[in-house]
Amino acid sequence: MSFRSVIQEVKGEIGAISRRGFRSRPGRVRRVAAAAEEPPDESSAAALVMRESCWTQLPPELLREVLARVEESEGWWPRRRDVVACAGVCRSWRGIVREIVRTPEASGNLTFPISLKQPGPRDAPMKCFIVRNRTTQTYYLYIGLTDALTDDGKFLLAARKCRRTTCTEYLISLDMNNISKRTDTYVGKLRSNFLGTKFTVYDAHPPYAGDVISKDQSARVIGSNHLSPRIPAGNYPVSHISYELNVLGSRGPRRMHCAMDSIPVSAIEQGGTAPTQTEFPLSYHESFTSIPFFKSKSVRANNSTASLLTQNGSKLVLKNKSPRWHEHLQCWCLNFHGRVTVASVKNFQLVASDESNPTNQEHDDVILQFGKVGKDMFTMDYRYPISAFQAFAICLSSFDTKIACE
């Protein structure tokens, strides 16, 4: 068999696996359907085992070459799902795919769920959009499949607004149908103060390697009667967002100030690096860092973050780019390069603040921009050193009504 035939056959098998995975329904439905099917006969079972063993026993050198070519040829969704399907074939395939697939910083692609927690590309922004559902108070983040402002998109994250007595929370999840803390897909939250002028972004997983709960703390949490061991209740503060009060009612857009607690200012310098999560915790025991019943644990996680930033220097601070007043249009204007079409007080661009720049030079590179393109449609473009999760959380803070800031 020629090398080209091997590649075509492998891609055909990957496509079949991908289609089966995308057409399948949620887990409970799959289990019921599987139980209702007739048991396969011995010949079909033997054929399945033979086919699986055929692919799993490929020489590692050949397999690595095939998977590398699949990775290079699939740059955009939905075709990129073939790369994800490769990782689900078997353990050997999964290990090689993880070696081949690079982080969004280097490749400019979002491949696996952990990519949403990793810094975006350095060279060009990652172009996404947010869809708002006013009825259910939910927000959905998609990555565009084309260069158009909006298209069908590939779903990335979902958030649900929850009103509390003293604050507002936005729960962020990988599942658009089940947004809750009591699921495996919960990744973090955004919490506001009473006035809606200050926000804190909490990550459900450690932003740094090794920043996990100790064994004695883990035993205490797991032994609690209030929580199930499978609830990912991590509470790592990774950024703080504040909106400047507009007491005098002066004209102009909102003024934002974002302190990225988990990113040192050295990340935006030449050769600087930002913390990058490589995988989700294997055990939910590692996610128990801050529980409402044990307030001191949130302080421990924050102290760990602060100590790491002390070693790398001060934390990165972002501020909204100052717009200019257009005399002819009689409005404040920013250059969104065609990515925003509707004027709104929610529109903003974030750049590195001067106070976080040791050379006191003005930063012109926009790290995050957010703007309106329809009644319930908004674009979100982000780049290094922030992640899709952090960018989404910052944009969610703009949806809250802030009478004191406008």
TrEMBL record:
Coiled coil: none annotated. InterPro entries: F-box-like_dom_sf (IPR036047), F-box_dom (IPR001810), Tubby-like_C (IPR025659), Tubby_C (IPR000007), Tubby_C_CS (IPR018066). Residues 55-98 form the F-box domain. The lineage of its organism: Eukaryota, Viridiplantae, Streptophyta, Embryophyta, Tracheophyta. It comes from Oryza nivara (Indian wild rice). Belongs to the TUB family. Residues 116-401 form the Tubby C-terminal domain. It comes from the Eukaryota. This is Tubby-like F-box protein.
